[in-house]
Design brief:
Chain lengths: ~230, ~210
């Protein structure tokens, strides 16, 4: 079965519908599926619910989907690097469900692992616990969090082979593996598709079973906060 | 000039809390400065976006967009560095593998309640990984100014702001001293340079036992 597609638009063909839930990889602007986000903008699919740790910045990353009003609801742990996000949220156009970062990651991992929910200490006694089942294990309270199963996952990796085995680079891995796992269909974009057999099987970060469609492309990889130090002069 | 510790002295005092061999998560602000004061101790810094062994900022021109910390700043790797995904990262946090987190706070209460993510009516950006960290790590150390800009105690009988975690704080390091959360209230561990115990008590709303 052929997984490699010519471009992001073709890779998303037939997968999109209004009102769908999409899980997206990335942390800030690091390791985000830039090309698939552009194709989503192009598609015009709307009323989207997007599970992603952040929502990009103004005019870049998922922020592009805000400009076009395609997002109805975000599931995120941290937002607001984005003036348009705050404007839409405060005016009630955009729904927002805060998830603690680890809870969001685990909800995705669980969704891809056949685990419908899990108990966690995170958020016990806070607003996050409101309306959730509390269970005591060995003297400690935990809250029940439900898994996320998305209609579609969009992720970014560094390299892939044509079977969809993925290798990530440095901290650009972040939410990409759990996001990929929780989608009924996962489309991945990579910087390079290498010949089958050239990736060391012991060094695959995400096996191709989780990846259904694949594209190669060039990425802007914008830096959100460039911080540097001065070279010590000898 | 005000008595007590400045930001760097607070960070240096917080660094004394860290033990050789620990894996540690540092929050944004003063906690970030703690890394400058670990000295010869073998400390591995975790960045919750998926990295153990966080190095310093890169030299100008050597920034890598694939290598950032949880504050989204460009950083570098060390010879000991490992990378992993966010679910694994919070697995080690939730699983108690991270020995300590050093975090800033808006308010801390005498029962160890911590508020540091939201002010009702103000712009709310989210809790990020703070709720997971305080619920999961071995020891939660708060480093913050003792009072807010209006001169009111941030060390309270009860938090007024929405909580990040309930009963999670172990130790509080402020510009005025060090306090531990113990049954019945807070216990003074030490006072900052030039600060008397009476001055620390007077600046603190919480019960000191």
């Amino acid at each position: 079965m052929k997984k490699v597609y010519a471009n992001a638009g073709e890779a998303l063909d037939g997968l999109l519908h209004d009102g769908m839930t999409i899980a997206a990889g990335g942390f800030g602007l690091c390791g985000i599926p830039e090309l698939l986000i552009d194709a989503l903008v192009e598609s015009g699919a709307k009323d989207l619910t997007i599970a992603s740790n952040n929502c990009g910045v103004d005019g870049f990353g998922l922020g592009k989907l805000l400009d076009t009003r395609q997002i109805r609801k975000m599931l995120s742990s941290y937002v607001g690097e984005n003036a348009e996000f705050m404007r839409q949220y405060l005016s009630g156009e955009l729904e927002l469900e805060f998830n603690p970062q680890g809870t969001l990651a685990e909800r995705m991992r669980a969704g891809g692992s056949g685990i419908p929910g899990f108990y966690t200490k995170t958020g016990v006694g806070t607003v996050i616990a409101e309306g959730k089942e509390v269970k005591n294990f060995d003297g400690q309270d935990y809250i029940l969090e439900r898994a996320i199963v998305a209609d579609l996952s969009i992720v970014k990796a560094w390299k892939a082979d044509d079977t969809g085995n993925l290798v990530f680079r440095k901290t650009a891995r972040n939410f990409n593996p759990p996001a990929a796992m929780c989608g009924r269909v996962c489309v991945a974009e990579v910087e390079e598709i290498v010949p089958r057999g050239s990736l060391d099987p012991d060094h695959i970060h995400l096996p191709g079973i989780y990846v259904h469609r694949l594209i190669q492309g060039s990425h802007e990889k914008r830096i959100e906060k460039a911080t540097t130090r001065k070279k010590e002069t000898a | 000039m005000a008595k007590g510790w400045d930001r760097d002295q607070m960070a240096a005092r917080a660094a004394e809390e860290l033990q050789d061999g620990w894996y540690v998560n540092l929050g944004i602000g003063i906690p970030t400065l703690v890394a400058n004061y670990v000295g010869d101790k073998d400390i591995t810094l975790q960045s919750e976006n998926g990295m153990l062994g966080m190095g310093p900022f890169p030299y100008e021109g050597e920034e890598d967009p694939d290598l950032i910390n949880a504050g989204k700043q460009t950083i570098t790797e060390l010879s000991r560095t490992s990378y992993f995904d966010s679910a694994t990262s919070f697995g080690m946090i939730r699983g108690g593998k991270i020995a300590a987190a050093i975090l800033g706070a808006m308010e801390v209460a005498e029962n160890g309640d911590l508020a540091n993510w939201m002010i009702p009516g103000k712009l709310v950006k989210g809790m990020g990984g703070a709720m997971d960290l305080v619920a999961g790590v071995g020891r939660v150390i708060v480093v913050m100014d003792h009072q807010n800009k209006a001169g009111e105690s941030k060390v309270l009988r009860e938090c007024t702001l929405p909580l990040t975690g309930k009963g999670v704080v172990n130790r509080i390091i402020t510009n005025l001293g060090v306090l531990d959360v113990v049954p019945g209230g807070l216990k003074i561990v030490e006072t900052a340079d030039g600060v008397t115990e009476d001055e620390l008590r007077a600046a603190t709303e919480a019960t000191i036992v």
